[in-house]
Specification:
This protein has 184 residues and is α/β, with parallel strands linked by helices. It contains six helices and five strands; from the N terminus they run αααβββααβαβ. It has a five-stranded mixed β-sheet, with helices on both faces. Helix 5 packs across helix 6.
Length: 184
């Protein structure tokens, strides 16, 4: 059974019917909604919710994003991230064409073991050695290549925040510029 926090109309920022992309609080709320959408994608997977029973879609659709790709961990097959694309051409750099969002640690049985291992790697400063990080880097590099200079955001919460920051740091070292990062 779904918790209230998983249902967008009960817990999402439904008051943001008109988004001011110049307002940092609006941008942060949207980034948080996309990250929460990744959590809900994983909960939908764990609870076998499909079609009309799935709860994740409104978390990005409300803000005119579409889901381009789910990022699946090759160790535990969990969804750890997603690539979202804005449905319309961005008229301003404040509106991201792509958002790559990463979830944090989930303590449910399907994901707990791998997520805790990655938490420890984060503490030991070895997260960059994980296969999840390597996958994240590949997807971010690919998406930045597709973007043709359009704005790409990286967003994450908890472990996902560490992933977003580390990926962004490595992208900068590789010569990519202008990334936007939201850590929640």
């Amino acid at each position: 059974m779904a918790s209230e926090g998983e249902i967008f109309r009960l817990s999402g920022p439904v008051h943001l019917t008109v988004v001011d992309w110049n307002n940092i609080h609006h941008r942060r709320s949207i980034a948080a909604s996309l990250v929460n959408g990744v959590y809900i994608l994983e909960f939908d997977r764990q609870q076998n919710r499909h079609g009309s029973q799935a709860l994740a879609l409104p978390w990005w659709d409300f803000f005119h994003f579409k889901l381009n790709q789910v990022l699946i961990d090759d160790v535990d097959s969990s969804i750890f991230g997603a690539i979202f694309e804005y449905k319309y051409p961005s008229p301003t750099p404040k509106i991201p064409q792509y958002v790559i969002a990463f979830r944090g640690t989930i303590t449910k049985s399907d994901t707990r073991s791998q997520d805790f291992k990655l938490d420890l790697q984060c503490i030991r400063n070895t997260l960059h050695q994980s296969s999840r990080f390597q996958l994240a880097m590949q997807y971010v590099q690919y998406t930045v290549g597709l973007s043709r200079g359009a704005s790409v955001w990286l967003a994450g919460h908890s472990l996902g925040s560490a992933m977003a920051l580390l990926v962004g740091k490595n992208m900068t070292k590789m010569g990519y510029e202008g990334g936007n990062f939201f850590t929640l």
